[in-house]
Amino acid sequence: MSTGCAACQYRITFDVKDPRETPLQNFEIQVNEKKYNSLLLTCTMAGPLGEPMNGNRWGGSVSDIKLLSDFLPDLPPVNPFQDDTSDRFYVLKKSEVKKNDWIRLYLELAVATANRTHSRFGVANLKILRVAMETPREHVLPITEGLGAYDAIFYIRYTDSCKARAGDDVDRVAVVRRILDDHTEVFRLVGRTHSIRLLGNGESQKTDVHGSEDIEIPQDNQT
């Protein structure tokens, strides 16, 4: 995530573990930040560290910015955290949120990219309350099912105690969409944050949602 005044491109190295193999493997990816002050990210190149990486070296054309913007999800007209919408949304269990720490990463990226002028405050104070998931109905292939769906929208309700960043709207929701195109092998992550008061259907102030307790993410799981 850029802390300067322009969108940037990054090479990131990290260790990965294939469940079928024991040793850790050094991996490298290229992440392209498509627009400053927005969560519009693409990963266009990936591979073992030190080996030639497959993909688009320059991260796509300028028109990809408009394409990514078209993918940006809006708040739904109903509350995704309510059980009566479970035919469309899946509300994650507390254990699922704790186990999948990439959910915390999605939240931090959504908050940090939209608030560059307040980057000095960090994101450690963010507290996840509830998480709901939606899979676009037009995608029915097995690869799009469950938390590993190639195309999925995550609604992350959280609190932000940083007054400089959130003001009095400490109760908020991040809407993040993850898209993995298995044909072009491009990974996209787009999203934005809103005040929870903008959530539709008059349900925004309900806090007692069955099966979706407030979630404390352990510090060592935070990114």
From TrEMBL:
Region (Disordered) residue ranges read 201-223
Q: Which NCBIfam families match?
A: A_thl_para_3677
Q: Which Pfam families match?
A: protein_MS5 (PF04776)
Q: Which domain of life is it from?
A: Eukaryota
Q: What is this protein called?
A: UPF0725 protein At4g11700-like
The organism is: Camelina sativa
Q: What InterPro entries does UniProt report for this protein, alphabetically?
A: MS5
